[in-house]
User: Which sequence fits this backbone?
């Protein structure tokens, strides 16, 4: 039987922020090819616009 000290580690408080900054750093660096940058950037922009639209629709529906 395994103990609680397995290979799983809980995420720290700033791990998500660090991951986001690493992702943005990858988009602006020369590590990945241009087609991959445009694909990731397009998906990120689409997700941001989608969430903004959901937020606006939710905000309008609560006012009525």
Assistant:
């Amino acid at each position: 039987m395994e103990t609680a000290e397995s290979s799983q580690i809980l995420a720290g408080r700033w791990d998500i922020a660090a991951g986001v900054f690493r992702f943005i750093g990858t988009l602006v660096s020369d590590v990945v090819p241009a087609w991959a940058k445009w694909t990731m950037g397009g998906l990120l922009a689409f997700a941001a616009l989608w969430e903004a639209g959901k937020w606006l629709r939710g905000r309008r529906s609560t006012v009525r």
